[in-house]
Amino acid sequence: MVVLQIHQFNGFVSSVSRAQTNQGRRRASTTVCVQTQLAPSLTQKIMESISVGGEAGGAGGAYSYNALKRLDNIWSNICTQPTGPQETQQIVSRVSGFSQDYSMGNNLVGTFDIVVCGGTLGIFLATALCAKGLRVAVVERNAIKGRDQEWNISRKEMKELTEVRVLTEDEIEEVIAAKFNPNRCGFENLGDIWVEDILNLGVSPAKLVETVKQRFISLGGVILEDSSLSSIVIYNDLAVMQLSKGDTLSSRLVIDAMGNFSPILKQIKRGRKPDGMCLVVGSCAHGFKENSSSDVIYSSSSVTRVADSNVQLFWEAFPAGSGPLDRTTYMFTYTEPQSTSPSLEDLLEEYWKLMPKYQGVSLDELEILRVVYGIFPTYRNSPLPAAFDRVLQFGDASGIQSPVSFGGFGSLTRHLGRLSNGIYDAIDGDLLDSDSLSKLNPYMPNLSASWLFQRAMSAKQQLDVSRGFTNELLHVNFSCMQRLGDPVLRPFLQDIIQFGPLAKTLGLVMLTKPQIIPSIFRQVGIPVLLDWSVHFFMLGLYTLLSAYIDPLLRPSLEGLPSKTRFEWKRCLEAWKYGAGLDYEL
């Protein structure tokens, strides 16, 4: 870690006379290009001045400048790829017949009920399933460890881990690195809204993942680290996996917890470009004297230009657990993947300019501890149904997270009990065909309805509303939710959309500021609004079904045949979670 005395670097630029020949202009242009490339960006200078260690798998687990350039290259390829299906590597294949009719080789590690591929977040589900008495293995291409940068979460979401026996109450207290209140929501000088106990815990992923890993091992779980998945062959009775080191595993079910860039996910989607993207940059730094509260969402500016793109920038800020003067600040934006989209390095250059004013501190006064960044693709048709027998997506790979959130730990804790129970039932009843497994990742109207919010918070490249529209819209929505009270505001701040609170908010917005409605139509477009209306109607229907029909049906489920009982249980869960009724204030 280095205390940085930072000054903006200006690269050498040669002026070229209009009277020069074309050849001279080309030589001068080449000279400028070479000399500009030799000049490091402010981001590069900062990142190369920091000692990088302890990088981990999963989103946000890498901190080096080289890792930033690799991720930017991935992002650039996404932006420039053509629309439509692409050729992808075929990881999963189907063979008719039973595994005993085929040779598995001499390196069979073992046969399991479940193999989880991807250990950083997959270890949580693996431990919950192991606690139910299933034989579970975890395959991870790196070491299973959490990153240094803290995860911010609410206590209610952490308590979900105790209910599935992944952690104890005492262990939860041990992994909490920071606690802070109050928490702010604010939009460009339009006024602030303060809440308590929303994302007000900083949890150490390093401690958390290690604690869960040791629990998993103590329950008899098997871990294969530094082993990546090469292929999966699906037979009538088993899934057989080949690993990069030549090992073979067989399992009744494979859980794909390899995140947004899972090779299985790429095969299923055939390389299709994401519908949206959340780009996140930030840092953890030492030197913040005012450091007792957090920002859940804050906007300090209207739509601005970064590189060749219009962007609406948002902020989050949290006290860090590494010291009383340490603070993490994130800057993020929502965009569609296109050739003019800014790179992560472009955003970081903007971040260094804007963050000091946002936090009221000079960059020269800060000791940068680490720089963080990530890209989070989203798809409208989420969650992802099972595409193969005996293979199920989990976590970010399934698309279960809200399109306006970045990082899936909160949604993981929310759905962990539902999924671990459903997967256990599927194993117990041998209901591992793709149709049965798809019922574990069902249509959820509250998740689909969130798409409107991402579209409203994204800046168009051809603006047909004012540059301050997004801040104005968010402020009037948050003000209305605050007037309606905690039952409306708090679920929304935790990415849970419910029919009643949403309908009340929309009604109050239309009464409070009806003149904003035409701008909403121009910003999101009629087709998106019509599509959203369908999901809003289904949100109301799911609420009705879960509140009134579920209590009538549930008592009779135990008398049904195994497969029918499994399907109805999943249906009742889809109503409940799809309406956001799993949330309790």
TrEMBL record:
It holds the Pfam family Lycopene_cycl. InterPro entries: FAD/NAD-bd_sf. GO terms for cellular component: chloroplast. The gene is LCYB. It comes from the Eukaryota. Signal peptide: none annotated. This is Lycopene beta/epsilon cyclase protein.
